[in-house]
Amino acid sequence: MPRLHALELLPDAAGEAAVRRDWQALRDAGLPSMLDHTGASNTPHVTVIAVPEIEPADERLAADLLGQVLPVAARLSGLALLGGRRVSVARLVDVPDELVTAVLRLRAGTRGHQHPGWLPHVTLARRVERADVPRVLEAVAGDPEPLLLVSLRRWDPDELSVHPVVPR
């Protein structure tokens, strides 16, 4: 499977802190957490697209479409378990229709998507054993929190770098 290039929405400082509290709660419970990923680019984000290649025209389209709606108020919501024997744990993100519309237009104008549609979420942990799911739910149970998405960046796995597409 090729390494996937991504366009990612970033929250403001308060939203980042809210996600990092979940990451810390999982670590404090002795569970996998995105805090375990020590790469410099590891920060809370909502992936918009993840494809084998992002062309300059794709970045321009993303800037045009998403730049019109950012910043946008959203909400950290329930949890999702993604995967098979081991799961990724994600906090779902409730987003307004105008953001969904912009993202779906971007997805329609780009190629190489691994999955249809878009499920806005922030990853909390990867490779969690199914037997540990009840402990995960206990560690990160909580009420929905507001989330302000303020910028868009590109992740380049070939260069291990990020750069802004729609700056803060």
Fraction in helix: 25-40%
End-to-end separation in angstroms reads 32 Å
- By DSSP (H or I, 4+ residues per run), the number of helices equals 4
- Please give the largest β-sheet: 7 strands, antiparallel
Q: Any idea what the shape is?
A: globular
Question: What would you note in describing this structure?
Answer:
The protein has 168 residues and is α+β, with helices and mostly antiparallel strands. Helices cover 29% and strands 36% of the residues. It contains four helices and seven strands; from the N terminus they run E-H-E-H-E-E-H-E-H-E-E. Strands 1, 2, 3, 4, 5, 6 and 7 form a seven-stranded antiparallel β-sheet that branches. A hairpin with a 4-residue loop joins strand 6 and strand 7 (161-166). The protein is globular. The model has no long low-confidence stretch (mean pLDDT 95).
Give a short summary of the structure:
The chain is of the alpha+beta class and 168 residues long. Helices cover 29% and strands 36% of the residues.
Question: Which secondary structure elements does this structure contain, and how are they paired or packed?
Answer:
Layout: E1 5-11, H1 13-28, E2 46-51, H2 56-67, E3 72-83, E4 86-94, H3 97-108, E5 121-129, H4 133-140, E6 145-156, E7 161-166
Antiparallel strand pairs: 1-2, 1-6, 3-4, 3-6, 4-5, 6-7
Helix pairs in contact: 2-3
